[in-house]
Amino acid sequence: xxxxxxxxxxxxxADALENINDVSEGLLNDHLRSLLELNLSKPKKGSKIxxxxxxxxxxxxxxxxxxxxxxxxxTSQEVLRGxxxxxxxxxxxxxxxxxxxxQLGLGHSYSRAKLKFNVNRVDNMIIQAIALLDQLDxxxxxxxxxxxxxxxxxxxxxxxxxxxxxxxxxxAQFIGDKDTxxxxxxxxxxxxxxxxxxxxxxxxxxxxxxxxxxxxxxxMLNISAFAVRVVxxxxxxxxxxxxxxxx
Length: 247
Description:
Blueprint lengths: L12 H12 L5 H10 L11 E2 L3 H11 L3 E2 L2 H12 L1 H4 L5 H21 L4 H32 L5 H4 L3 H11 L10 H7 L4 H12 L8 H23 L3 H4 L1
């Protein structure tokens, strides 16, 4: 049978938050020290008094400071769980819904405080940026592989001429139907290739003697639209992410 000996409510929500922070860090604060000293006399030799504590670090702090024997085993956890469950019966005048609201409010305040004062919050942002960078790399490589395979039926020679994924997507988008690539487009094609006029001329020559099959207008529109999306994702990957993540 469990009976209530003493109960010391927190003065305010701020006081409750301060206490739960101390408990989470295994610290014995003045409030808890006073409560224990008031209700538990200093143990004598052979004393059978054992204090059930939910946190092992806090139990060690109490034992070292007050010389009170503490227990944080599974048995103690079950006893404390039962006390929490039957708290409305032990604490007269306390409604179960009020207790749930108080626990919920304190839980939210504790979580917000932990996030706000997280010393690793800057590192967490970098970690997320790096994870996004890795995912974008995988996505761009997968999408360009699809473009290479799809557009390769129409212009297979371009795969060997332009090995870079990002550049391949831009060139495929620019050329479109290989039969429309002419001398007039060479200057713009050269610019897309990093001012490599020789490569631009090789691409033009390859388009004229290409062994690729013809392609319908609707297929070309789909490939172009897909290439636009891939170029956009690759551009975001190269320019919008933090410098620390790209490094």
